[in-house]
Specification:
The chain has 278 residues and is of the alpha+beta class. It contains 4 helices and 10 strands, in the order αβββββαββββαβα. It binds zinc ion. The site of zinc ion has 5 residues, from loops.
Amino acid sequence: MRKFLLLLVVAILSACRPVGGTSTVIIPATATETPAPSETAQPSPSPTAIPPSPTPTDEHFAVCSPLEDETIDSLPLILVNPLVTPNAWGTDFGHPGLDFAYYQRGERLSIEGIKVYAILSGLVALTLEDHYPYGYAVVIETPLSALPESLGQTLMAGYEAVPEDLEYQYNCPNVPTPTVTGDYSLYHLYAHLGSPPVFATGDSITCGQLLGTVGSSGWSSNPHLHLETRLGPSGLEIPTMAHYQSNATVEQLGNYCLWRSSGYYQIVDPYVVLEAQP
Ligand SMILES: [Zn+2]
């Protein structure tokens, strides 16, 4: 009888151990860990196959470098075009983001094909086909409620009143009016990717997740990543946008002007986000 009980205990203990007899414990990745970008730009597998991804409401907060083999601290070394904020609403002057590029860096001969990662967790708000000016691009929405309170306060403190009855200084037909609920989000846009985005609107994105690779699609003369961050009403509703190309539709033109020049989606210096502390 004792022998039988001993065997039973051994059998139960064995059933608790991973197959293979090792004691390796697989810890679900969370946003607080070192980001482990996935190897292919595919949407996440079914929720049953992997632990749930962090959502924008997770209490964890992390900021990730947007480029393979670069840290947030090394990004200034490859900044080739800084942020230049337009001087007035209704215009499209300036450069609303940061451009990162290089011709040779260590063993690499070009930035083309380098992986592009999400700087924050969030949800896909918009994907773009190869239109001017952004080319293949992904926009991710991160609600302010998912950011540290101090960062949210800093961002909102810089948000100016949205202008009324704005007169656009360039071709902006039928600019839509977004729904304003009082909730705000940070939007991060990754432009000029090397291939079409593989995501759908609403897909959950984790900090450090692979979004695509550096390319030169859209209005771009050399491969580079254009990283743009904006603060605006939550729930961006535009399905497409384009400008500066003759076949852009009225809808694309209007949406572009909403995003760029209406005053609803106001430019944030990406470094304010990249250098944020939990
Ligand atoms: Zn740019």
